Amino acid sequence: MKLLSVAVPCYNSREYMANAIESLLSGGDEVEILIVDDGSADATAEIADEYERRYPNVVRAIHKENGGHGDAVMAGLRNAKGLYFKVVDSDDRVDPAAYPKVLETLRGFTDTPIDMLICNYVYDKVNAKHKHVMRYRHALPQKRVFGWDETKHFRKGQYILMHSVIYRTQLLLDCGLELPRHTFYVDELYVYVPLKAVRRMYYLDVDFYHYFIGREDQSVREQVMIRRIDQALLVNRLLITSVDPYEIKNRKMQKYMLNYLEIVTTVSSVLLTKNGTPENLEKKKELWAFIRKENPKVYRRLRYRLLGCLVHLPGRGGRAVMIDGYKIIRKIVGFN
């Protein structure tokens, strides 16, 4: 068994996928790199095959029909032979100094595995003088295994994302994780759904993952998100129905998951409001009606806290205040 499987989902990624793959090759034979070609129309498949030919003990090329990012992640997971599993998007990379420390840490948890390793990640934004780093040192214990009871306060915007986690592979296979096809933003489901099964965690305070922000077609760009808002809303609804936080007995885990739902639903609501078309304003009403119907308790929690009140301010003036407030929060928190 390999120590770590790393899935690299690729769709028409020939221009930048080498950066991600090259950053992972220094892991040696205990790491397997699964290059998942998601039905690309460019030279992605040929590049994946060439890496497999050059590094047969490390790289495997997986070719499949196009199914979207989540489907590529699931294909990587189904083929993984490592004790632990990580996703590195084809336009991102891992840090060469932090990578050996991550492997050393995982190596120490082979006999009694942990469920999740958490590391820092860097917002690698093009032309930004200051690279914002998401760290967890004030929220999580260090240098020991811990459970949810030992976590501290997570700040707004300080969430555990796909960039920051390495899961135990079998936990992902056993937790019922399913990512919808042809849908962006499934990373929210990937990191949220398995949390209900996480008991043993370890935080390594290194800046491991570099999250590139700068491509014009990137899914997290605001204009792109508005164009793909129906996909974001699908993920938002699946988050609501996939796990009921109020069925989780651990209060700290429950609080974290409710806060996560709050920020995702706020972003959906703000984007729909900023677009301002009658169709999208109606979609905002439908989203909140869906939450109220599916889980009234979650609805009350989301609707009547500060952010829920903010996104429901009435009239044009209310919408202007909401958008200005969102801009301020985004700048303070540092998310894209």
Detailed description of the structure:
Helix content is 44%, strand content 18%. By secondary structure, it is an alpha/beta fold. It folds into 2 domains: 2-213, Spore Coat Polysaccharide Biosynthesis Protein SpsA, Chain A (Alpha-Beta Complex); 222-333, no CATH class. Strands 1, 2, 3, 4, 5, 6, 7, 8 and 9 form a 9-stranded mixed β-sheet that branches. The relative contact order is 0.11. The model has no long low-confidence stretch (mean pLDDT 92).
> Structural class of the secondary elements?
alpha/beta
Order of helix and strand elements from N to C terminus = EHEHEHEEHEEEHHEHHHHHHH
Distance between the termini: 37 Å
User: In total, how many beta strands?
Assistant: 9
* Overall average pLDDT: 92
Task: Assign the CATH superfamily of the largest domain.
Answer: Spore Coat Polysaccharide Biosynthesis Protein SpsA, Chain A
Q: For the CA atoms, what is the radius of gyration?
A: 20 Å
Indicate the CATH architecture of the largest domain: Alpha-Beta Complex
Number of separate helices: 13
The CATH class of the largest domain is: Alpha Beta
Main β-sheet, in a few words? 9 strands, mixed
Q: What are the low-pLDDT stretches, counting only 5+ consecutive residues below 50?
A: none
- What is the helix content? 40-55%
Strand content: 15-25%
At CATH level 3, the topology of the largest domain is Spore Coat Polysaccharide Biosynthesis Protein SpsA, Chain A
What general form does the structure show?
globular
Give the total of domains.
Answer: 2
